[in-house]
From TrEMBL:
CDD domains: DUF326 (cd08026). InterPro entries: Csp_YhjQ, YHJQ-like. It comes from Sphingomicrobium lutaoense. It holds the Pfam family Csp. This is Four-helix bundle copper-binding protein.
Amino acid sequence: MSIRKMIALHPDVVKSGHVNEPLGTAVHHAMYCAKMCMSCADACAAEEMDMTQCIRVCSDCSDICEAMSRVGARRSGTNEQVLKDMLELCARVCDACAAECEKHDHDHCKLCAQICRECADDCRKAAMTISA
């Protein structure tokens, strides 16, 4: 089961016959990215070195990804400008998180940076499909 399938089953999507695959992929990755960033922030808190900035950036990224995935999964009605803005914001925040995590040699930071880069790319692709 996936969020992409859930979005495709929404009555408004079924009626229109238009499933926005890039948006479904962005929502899917943002859901995972939110959890990965939260986990990375927690792991950073357990590191012996000062990881305050990484914790902050990962926590912010987690919250933004969570919010974007919630907005993106809603298919009733329209709010295209907000959706596009959220996708673009999510991409920028994911880029910032990846850049911060790439400064550290911890495996959890490397994994977090990877999912953030993937999420940012997917959000940009989805934003290009939204007419606002």
